[in-house]
Specification:
With 413 residues, this protein is an alpha/beta fold. Helices cover 51% and strands 15% of the residues. The strands form three sheets. Strands 1, 2, 3, 4, 5, 11, 12 and 13 form an eight-stranded mixed sheet that branches. It has a three-stranded antiparallel sheet with strand order 9-8-10. Strands 6-7 form a two-stranded antiparallel ribbon. Strand 2, helix 2 (69-81) and strand 3 form a beta-alpha-beta unit. Helix 1 packs parallel to helix 2 (69-81), helix 10 packs antiparallel against helix 11 (291-309) and helix 10 packs across helix 15. The longest helix has 24 residues, at 372-395. The chain is elongated, with a radius of gyration of 26 Å. The protein starts with 25 loop residues before the first strand and ends with a helix.
Length: 413
């Protein structure tokens, strides 16, 4: 059952009509891979489309290792505020880290057999394994509070939800919760302290030791009440919630969203920058404006447009890049040698590209920490482009003697 025509969506969700309370029909939105600003735009559009078309059910099909916590918190808020009667998470493979936040933001959770959920330890860029370190308390507290609030709202054990974020907690299963009115079936050491109950006086079983975060497989999540059902596939998951699979229509990303996702892929981004820089080297060493300049403009223009649409680059970063390029051109064609102007231009270009690869938003410190990996990719692109350029000089001296001589003269200067 497809729509032949989709009317334009208003920006204000409150301008959209109310949706009915039946469970069918439903929209299905797949969220795979890292969660970032692109996911925020996609989910926002899906929520508005669901309401505009009068679909009472939205199913988030999750298979994600996590991603940007700030983007996940914003997505969670929008899911919670959307006036859609049935918001259901189907965990296909994994809903870890930021994916767990999205799953708990839904009213109901159904998990595919063998899938897992949890491990929402907040990480930030730093000198650790994989370039990440555990975040400070000021970053952890909002996520932990959000997880606990979502658990309370949707009837999920709060201690388990908070235990996904805080590894300093011990999480217990209370064997006889009816004897302890101040405790839920699952409680952490902090819950004992809040309730004023001596842990030694309570029969309990250690579920998650201190130093570990809560991560549950599908059967465990079902047993503890985090998931309401498990299913072998999506069709069975639909039937588990009382929905005919034929009534679930997939709402895929728009072609523009797919193109932006492709451009902002780290490897594609690196290749675009490397080709653009190599073309820029070529153009600088040749008189006039030719193919090299056109290729460089196309590569850098594509890079900046894609990253701007993907909520990474901003206009001022593109302006800094242009200023840096202008300084380099000034150094090459006006000022003899390679001095302050050229060095400043290179620094501005590299900085603009690194910041343009970093998700917009957040404090200056968060942006600075997040810019570490993009800066490495930009420097890698510079080195790759220079190596390709040098290799082209060495391999094709007869085909391009003027090109080779001019490049050698430029390097000697």
């Amino acid at each position: 059952m497809g729509r032949r025509h989709a009317p334009p969506l208003p920006d204000d969700p409150h301008a959209l009509p109310d949706v009915p309370v039946e469970i069918a029909p439903a929209y299905r939105a797949r969220i795979a891979g890292p969660i970032d600003a692109r996911t925020l735009r996609f989910v926002s559009r899906v929520l508005r489309r669901c309401q505009a078309d009068g679909y009472p059910t939205l199913i988030l099909d999750l298979d994600t290792p996590g991603g940007d916590a700030l983007a996940a918190l914003e997505i969670s808020q929008r899911i919670e505020e959307a006036p859609i009667p049935h918001k259901i998470a189907f965990v296909r493979g994994k809903a870890l880290s930021a994916g767990a936040i999205l799953a708990l933001s839904c009213d109901r959770i159904v998990m595919q057999e063998g899938s897992m959920i949890g491990d929402c330890l907040v990480m930030v860029p730093g000198p650790g394994p994989g370039g990440m370190v555990e975040a400070e308390e000021k970053h952890v507290a909002p996520v932990a509070a959000r997880m606990r609030a979502l658990a309370a709202r949707h009837g999920v054990p709060e201690a388990l939800a908070e235990g996904m974020v805080r590894k300093e907690r011990e999480v217990f299963e209370i064997l006889h919760p009816e004897r302890h009115p101040g405790l839920d079936r699952f409680a952490s050491d902090a819950d004992f302290a809040r309730a004023g109950i001596d842990p030694a006086a309570v029969e309990k079983r250690l579920l998650v030791p201190r130093g570990e975060v809560v991560t549950l497989h599908a059967r465990e999540a079902l047993r503890v009440g985090l998931a309401e059902a498990t299913a072998p596939d999506f069709a069975a998951a639909c039937r588990a919630i009382g929905l005919d699979p034929k009534d679930a229509e997939e709402l895929p990303p728009l072609w523009a969203e797919s193109v932006v996702a492709w451009i902002t892929d780290p490897w594609v981004s690196l290749i675009l920058l490397a080709i653009g820089m190599m073309a820029m080297y070529t153009e600088i060493t040749q008189p006039g404006f030719g193919i090299g300049g056109c290729v460089a403009l196309a590569c850098f223009g594509t890079w900046f447009v894609g990253h701007q649409l993907g909520a990474y680059a901003q206009y001022w970063e593109a302006a800094i890049f242009v200023v840096g390029l202008a300084l380099i051109l000034l150094e090459v064609f006006v000022i003899p040698g390679f001095g302050v102007a050229g060095a400043a231009g290179a620094i501005l270009m590299i900085g603009a590209l690194a910041l343009g690869s970093t998700p917009a938003g957040g404090s200056a410190g968060e942006v600075a920490r997040a810019a570490g990996a993009p800066l490495g990719r930009v420097l890698g692109a510079f080195l790759l482009s220079f190596a390709l350029f040098a290799g082209m000089m060495a391999d094709f001296p007869r085909a391009a003697p003027v090109f080779r001589e001019s490049m050698m003269a430029w390097l000697l200067d």
